[in-house]
Amino acid sequence: MVMKPDILAIIPARGGSKGIPGKNIKDFAGFPLIAYSIIAGLQSELVTRVIVSTDDEKIAEVARHYGAETPFLRPESIARDDTLDLPVAQHCLDWLAEHEGYHPEILVWLRPTSPIRPLDCVDQAIRLLLEHPQADSVRGVVPAGQNPFKMWTLDGETSIMIPLLGVEGIPEAYNAPRQALPDVYWQTGHIDALWAKTVLEKHSMTGKTILPLMIDPRYTVDIDMPSDWPAAEQLVLNNTRELTMVDPANQRRRLPEDIQLIVLDFDGVLTDNRVWVNEDGQEMVASNRSDSLGLEILRRLTGIDVMVLSKETNPVVEARCNKLKLPMLQAVQDKVSAIRGIIADKKLNHSQVVFMGNDINDLPVFPEVAFAAVPVDAHPAVIRQADRVLSAPGGRGAVRELCDLIMDHLGVRSS
To answer: What family does the entry list (predicted)?
Structure first.
């Protein structure tokens, strides 16, 4: 029987970033930046454990939410701007050995600032290392965009240009055609795979024998400065399956078996998000009778409670909910506190609650419930985080579709 090696993925994520404050848990295309690296480790076929090394309890909380372990908080002494990766890796391995007797054979280093990873790059790096046990490590690389043999430094006193690098056998490499120069590669932050002994015995994050994992340059994203963020985010938001990347949006939850409560936003869910205002300032909205009938059938056949949670204060909301016999809360500015209060008052567990919203102010509610659905015309960032994107728009059949979906899931026939 061949024993699988213990392979530990470590995600370094300190809390004191100055270039982009709070970047590791800042929203990136609908999810905290760190979530992309956590999912990369969790979905790997070969990684056996995923740990986030952080000094920040907020980061640790987010990391745990997305499935990583945070068995310790990193000491402040190795959580500074100038802290190298090596002492962070050494601390993690030493702590796990001392407190758990845990000794992984291979480490996988996943930097949060390179969130756009090919689906298989983690396992590819590990397999490459396993196939070449004489190597110390594997590092992800892409063809370099600029040639270092045509780069210069300046003399500190005279400002005379000095070639950065030379090439043996090519005088004045900086004047040579590109085709005559060696191919060069840029290391990315996507993936490092290394033997634990490289850290513990050779006191290095790479060792001397480093194998390359060639990565498609389209995935080359390194978020270091605020200016890097928008372009990288748009690459994800506008991705139409051109990049088969590790994406938290693909980690959809399933409908729970025990549903006791459905909470609906009002505008954009029970309405189409439009408002008509007459000359007296009175507002009118459009709703869908199919949605109303779906709610009636659902409650009658399943006994599931349904209620409305709305940010707006509007007589229209009250009138519509009264007609549908739906309990409601209006003028809710903090939906998270509201949903937690509702769950506590009804003596429920979050695993028994389904939510339907449509806009970014609904996003904080998603982690508080078991399942979140959205209409097809919801905000793009909300669509990315939803567990189910319905085919119908808000106010035009989306609620009915959710009702039918739940009844089918529970094996209840509506006719």
So the answer is: Belongs to the CMP-NeuNAc synthase family.
Residue 239 counted as domain residue: yes
- CA 415 distance to own-chain centroid: 41
CA distances from 5 to 68, 80, 106, 386 (A): 19, 32, 7, 35
pLDDT for residue 414: 64
Range(s) of the domain holding residue 115: 7-144+184-250
Q: What percent of the chain has pLDDT over 70?
A: 94
Q: How confident is the model at residue 203 (pLDDT cuts 50, 70, 90)?
A: very high
pLDDT, one tens digit per residue, over 339-379 is: 999 999 999 999 999 999 999 999 999 999 999 999 999 98
Residues 344 and 391 in one domain: yes
168: left (phi over 0), alpha (psi -120 to 50) or beta: beta
Question: CA–CA separation, 174 vs 285, rounded Å?
Answer: 69
- 372 φ, ψ (degrees, to nearest 5): -125, 125
CA–CA gap between residue 336 and residue 342 (Å, rounded):
10
CB 86 within 8 A of CB 205: yes
Chain centroid to Cα 323, Å, comes to: 40
Rounded Cα distance, 355 and 374, in Å: 9
Cα 10 to Cα 32: distance, rounded to the nearest angstrom: 17
Average pLDDT over residues 189-216: 97
Return the pLDDT at 109.
Answer: 98
Look at the chain and report how many structural domains it folds into: 3
pLDDT in tens, 99-143: 999 999 999 999 999 999 999 999 999 999 999 999 999 999 999
CB atoms within 10 A of CB 16: 13
Rounded CA gap, 126 and 196, in Å?
Answer: 13
User: Read out DSSP for 329-352?
Assistant: E-S-S-HHHHHHHHHHHTT--GGG
Assess whether 192 and 265 both reside in one domain: no
In a shared domain, residues 190 and 209: yes
* Cα–Cα distance measured from residue 397 to residue 406, given in angstroms and rounded to the nearest whole number: 14
Q: Which of 72, 71, 62 is nearest to 28 (CA)?
A: 62
Alpha-carbon span 102 to 95, nearest angstrom: 9
